[in-house]
Amino acid sequence: MNASVFIATSLDGFIAREDGAIDWLPTPDGTDEDYGYQAFMDTVDVLVMGRHTYETVLSFGAWPYETPVVVLSHRSIEQPEEQDASVERMAGPPREILQRLADRGLTHAYVDGGRTIQRFLADGLIQRLTITVVPVLLGEGLPLFGPLPHDVRLQLLDTRSFPNGLVQHRYAVVAE
Amino acid sequence: MNASVFIATSLDGFIAREDGAIDWLPTPDGTDEDYGYQAFMDTVDVLVMGRHTYETVLSFGAWPYETPVVVLSHRSIEQPEEQDASVERMAGPPREILQRLADRGLTHAYVDGGRTIQRFLADGLIQRLTITVVPVLLGEGLPLFGPLPHDVRLQLLDTRSFPNGLVQHRYAVVAE
């Protein structure tokens, strides 16, 4: 089971303001530039996110995912209004969650949300990180990264920049 | 008076471990690659750093700077052993420090050290940021960035990557 991160951060490493706001992300510019999102999603067969990220997604209105979503939560969650949305709640240690998904024949999880990413990284379960850096400093907010039991060495796979100043890096986590 | 930052960080935004260690920076690889450091230093006529960074530099042994150094400190500082090292202590608000240096005909300050960079950024005194991202997550350490009174928008000037996986971005701070 592979697990990847695909996320945008401010240059100072925040994925959202303290209140979850992402108003600082670039607004669609009329082009169909999606920063590689759809190409990435095409490789993913399940999303894994925390309850907080899930509730943020729900608050946006229309359910955005065709891919099945697993929400990590110890209490029950609201379901999306869309009948065809596939949302399932799970609870447990990250390694166990991925094992349960692998047992179903799933092969590539998109791990999303700050705390969830941090937990999976700390447990050595992430293989790929695609980080898109937005040219702004927020000063405070919800951080992408957090404490780790030890250094995590990365290998830069590629990097590219966009006309609006976004820079995207793809890293592989170097196995311990 | 222009002021620039030129610094390396881990992907999770640390410039040193908690104890100041920079063992995670790439070791010289026998090439003369300096990641643009000398070209940058050639544009600088004064370094401004905090006492903590200064003491770290002193601990390295041989004094590395030909450029005059201003150390921000409210108490007296040790001088380098090297007779030709130019080190001067100053204290005061960042804007006042830069004004004093400008009054001497200096034109471009290299602002270094986490807390000092944060103070100068918060006061809107930095025009250029060159950030070199090392492909490692440390989990904890001394952060490059800190709280700000408001968002700081940046313009990406250029980006380049190196064979060892370092990625360097140059940003201009967008005037408020």
Structure write-up:
The structure is a homodimer of 176-residue chains. The first copy, chain A, has helices at 37-41, 51-59, 94-103, 114-122, and strands spanning 2-10, 14-16, 46-50, 69-72, 87-90, 108-112, 128-134, 136-137, 142-143, 152-161, 167-173. The longest helix of chain A is centred in the middle third of the chain and has 10 residues, at 94-103. The two termini of chain A are 17 Å apart. Chain A is an alpha/beta fold. Chain A has one domain: Dihydrofolate Reductase, subunit A. The first copy, chain A, is built from four helices and eleven strands; from the N terminus they run E-E-H-E-H-E-E-H-E-H-E-E-E-E-E. In chain A, the strands form two sheets. Chain A has an eight-stranded mixed β-sheet with strand order 5-4-3-6-1-7-11-10. The first copy, chain A, has a two-stranded antiparallel sheet with strand order 2-9. The model of chain A has no long low-confidence stretch (mean pLDDT 95). The A-B interface holds A 11-13, 24, 121-122, 131, 133, 135-140, 144-156, 159, 161, 165-167, 169, 171 and B 11-13, 24, 121, 131, 133, 135-140, 144-156, 159, 161, 165-167, 169, 171. Strand 8 of chain A pairs antiparallel with strand 10 of chain B.
